[in-house]
Design brief:
TIM Barrel, Jelly Rolls
């Protein structure tokens, strides 16, 4: 894969504006609404299509330069460097955008540069040709293009393009969408957002801004080259950071604060939450509910069940067809541990029946000596001696990160081979 180590995106800003760093912040910018005709405002079967709502429906239209200009200037206010335009194939929207760019640039307003987001290379090329060169996001003389997943994806060999996007395109930087819902991933390009709600069962609560803050915290820990916000104005999926009736204008200042810190290479303190001051977290089947900052994660590779045996509740790893291992995965509440580099101790009360061992693999800041995968760093195993009684296994976890990078967003997992695994409680404490 090709990489460039410096991304000098420059904006058409006033002379007293600060210089940009090699890190930059983008935001996905949609244009699919027209208040005059009602386009995009109702669902195909009827009903309101918008989850978030604009401050006003006056000039609320992708066909109007005034609408694009307002969005561009507010993005500049929020410290956004690049507007990732999701309407490369819409000639009417592109024409209005070009006019808005010309007006704002003439008055030397702080606005982001722009780049196309599409799965259609000809549409990307047409967008790049329509936009004045001084308004395009470029690096190393190449024009930025974000390419979406496509069944017809082929490696891009255009020397004029700097490609970010789905791996099938063989881009300069691979990017995976979905950060607004699933949270940041440890990649060169991080996507994140304030939350997600598209009217279906897919929901990621904004949690009064806490989800957005946690996502930025992770991004500043990951230190990617690009942070791409999902989204500036996707009103139909409830992921907006632009001014809205629902959430006001506060996220302009929030975004600018974190964007500035990101460009400076700073980090922020872990966001506060229920377990921020806790001595430890635990999962104990003696209590109802058993989760106290720690919970098992059910995924195709880590299925489990809670069963009653001799009047006691047990957490048991279920078999996976075709595998001779059984796995229990656990997620630690982010308010207790998230993207850190500390030593922790994990204690587990398990049923010592039969022979074999249980391995604990954890999400670490660094791989073990000689290893490669930091998300599967192994602690010293516990060996069963077949006493038939309950035993307490203790695991030391140096340089743990607990960044939710294992299956299902989990932080560590217990693995046995050729045997079962039954536990009564688990606790995690920082050392």
């Amino acid at each position: 894969m090709r990489y460039l180590f410096f991304l000098p995106f420059l904006l058409p800003l006033p002379q007293d504006s600060p210089k940009m760093s090699e890190r930059w912040v983008a935001a996905f910018y949609a244009a699919r609404w027209d208040a005059e005709s009602g386009e995009g405002l109702t669902k195909p079967g009827g009903g309101n299509a918008l989850q978030d709502h604009p401050e006003s429906f006056k000039d609320f239209s992708y066909k109007k330069a005034a609408w694009h200009r307002r969005n561009l200037e507010e993005m500049g206010e929020a410290g956004i460097d690049v507007a990732l335009c999701e309407f490369a194939g819409n000639e009417v929207a592109v024409k209005a955008l070009v006019q808005a760019l010309a007006e704002a640039s003439k008055e030397r307003k702080r606005i982001p540069r722009v780049a196309p987001v599409t799965a259609d290379l000809p549409a990307a090329a047409a967008f790049l040709n329509a936009i004045p060169k001084e308004n395009l996001a470029t690096t190393g003389g190449r024009k930025l293009v974000w390419l979406l997943p496509s069944k017809s994806a082929q490696p891009v060999e255009n020397p004029e393009m700097f490609v970010v996007g789905d791996a099938a395109w063989k881009p300069h930087l691979v990017a995976t969408l979905g950060g607004a819902y699933a949270g940041p991933r440890d990649m060169e390009v991080v996507t994140l957002g304030p939350g997600y709600c598209d009217g279906t069962s897919l929901l990621q609560s904004r949690d009064d801004g806490a989800w957005y803050e946690r996502s930025w915290y992770a991004a500043l820990k990951i230190k990617p080259r690009i942070v791409a916000i999902e989204s500036w104005n996707r009103f139909d999926e409830g992921s907006t950071i632009c001014p809205t009736k629902d959430h006001g204008r506060a996220q302009l200042a929030t975004t600018k604060k974190y964007a500035d810190q990101f460009r400076r290479g700073e980090e922020i303190a872990r966001p506060k939450g229920k377990y921020s001051s806790a001595i430890g977290v635990s999962y104990h089947l003696k209590f109802d509910p058993p989760n106290e900052g720690l919970r098992p994660v059910d995924s195709p590779d880590t299925p489990f069940e809670v069963v009653a045996l001799s009047g006691q509740s047990l957490l048991m790893a279920k078999p996976v067809p075709g595998k001779d291992t059984r796995t229990l995965a656990f997620e630690i509440d982010d308010s207790y541990a998230y993207y850190e580099r500390r030593e922790y101790e994990v204690q587990i009360q398990l049923l010592d029946k039969g022979r074999g061992q249980v391995d604990l693999e954890y999400d670490a800041a660094l791989p073990a000596k000689g290893g490669r995968d930091r998300t599967r760093r192994a602690a010293e195993p516990f060996y069963f001696v077949d006493t038939g009684n309950w035993a307490t296994a203790t695991f030391k976890l140096p340089e743990a990160a607990f960044a939710n990078r294992q299956e299902g967003g989990s932080d560590f997992r217990l693995v046995t081979k050729g045997r079962g695994l039954s536990i009564r409680w688990v606790q995690v404490r920082a050392k």
